Amino acid sequence: MNLKIDLLNPITQSITVIEDRETAEVGAVEGKGWSFINVYSLIELRNIYLAMVKSGFDGDLSKFSDYCDTNLPYERKPWSYRKVEEYINALRNFKILSKDNHLIQGIFKDQDIQNELSTEDKAVLKKIYYSYFRFKEIHTWFTNISASDRKQEVINFSEVRLREKSEELYSFSRSKRFTDSFFVDKEDLFKIYILDDSSTLNRRMMRFWHVYVTWGRLLGVLEKVNIDPLNTGGIQTAISCSYHIEKDVVKCDLVKYVKSKFGNRKTFIPEIVFKFAMENRISIRLAKEFILEQYQKNRDKFSIDNTSEIFIEVARIDKEDNLLYPLYRGSYISHLTLLQ
Predict the structure, then answer these.
(1) C-alpha to C-alpha distances, 64 to 45, 100, 301, nearest whole angstrom
(2) Residues 112, 28 within the same domain
């Protein structure tokens, strides 16, 4: 794989972001404003809802913030007035909490707040992920990032269309701060789609991209992987690939697959992992597990080479991104060779 990326003189097209004043047209709360959410923890979102039910939330944020600080566990940062406000804003955007503080009952089942997310919890959150218009807005980047009428794309969005039409979306940062650049052509780059940081709206969308990715990965419906191990033309910025996951099982003859895609030769395993995961729309984790499983069952057909972590440039790879190198018996695997 060789991505030819010209960062000095790229052909660019701006991504149109829907203005808050236009959001009612795509199903948002009318007159709400501030439609971006800054909520990364799905467990905390569920727990805030359960706490609102239990405490009889009446709109008094100061009182409720104190209640959360005393009664709710947290994942990274302790509960504060501002943090609670972010979660309340999200629930209003999701139409779970009304302007007059009416809370829709029964969204999440009553349960111990120490529990991990249940299958039922994830089903609720997936419904939000596929229905809230800001999430849908980015979903449409995967189906038609070049669209001139983004509102119409959001109006026409459906999960079925996402499954049938979505492409992989490559992303990187030109500003060195937030992800602001995207492209879809993995072999012959012809255009980079950008979020211009001169716009406050675009800067908010840059931040929201990380929220979008975090939700998708936690729900198991989106994969994002750093493709630095693949040849990206020697550019000095990390490139990631994101795509929507469609399967959680895979059946394939790996020997036939490697022969058909790479020939009878020694092959760089990250290339196999990436291509196999992309073509089957499975997670990187599942692709690596499948390859290792096939190797263990067919040692007479494969040989593998180990490599050191030193050569993987782990420092350049975000800790939240999946490595393309499988880990086998404490060592990373770099190459696979067909013996037949």
Answers:
(1) 14, 16, 62
(2) yes
Query: Which DSSP state fits 89?
Result: H
Distance CA 13, CA 195 (A): 9
Encode burial over 177-209: b for 16+ CB neighbours within 10 A, e otherwise: ebbbbbbbebeebeebbbbeeeeeebbbbbebb
CA distance 10 to 5: 8
Q: What ranges make up the beta strands (E) of the chain?
A: 12-14, 169-172, 181-183, 192-194, 222-226, 240-244, 266-268, 302-307, 327-328, 331-338
The closest alpha carbon to 125, from 244, 188, 40, belongs to 40
**pLDDT of 248:** 87
Parallel/antiparallel/unpaired status of strands 12-14 and 192-194: parallel
pTM summary value: 0.90
Instruction: Kindly indicate the confidence band of residue 31, based on its pLDDT and cuts at 50, 70 and 90.
Output: low
- Tell me which residue has tokens 């790479």: 262
User: CA-CA distance, 114 to 75, in Å (whole number)?
Assistant: 11
Find the domain containing 277 and state its range.
254-338
Give alpha helix (H) positions in 103-189.
Answer: 119-131, 133-144, 150-155, 159-165
Would 2 be classed as within a structural domain? no
pLDDT of residue 310: 59
Query: Is position 116 within any domain?
Result: yes
Residue 219 and residue 179 share a domain: yes
Residue 290 belongs to some domain of the structure: yes
How many residues are present in the chain?
340
- 171-197 per-position pLDDT tens digit: 999 877 789 999 986 555 568 899 988
Pairing state of beta strands 331-338 and 266-268?
Answer: antiparallel
Of the three residues 73, 90, 120, the one that is the final residue of a domain is: 120
Smallest CA-to-CA distance from 242 within 263, 259, 227 is with 227
Greatest pairwise CA separation for the chain in angstroms = 71
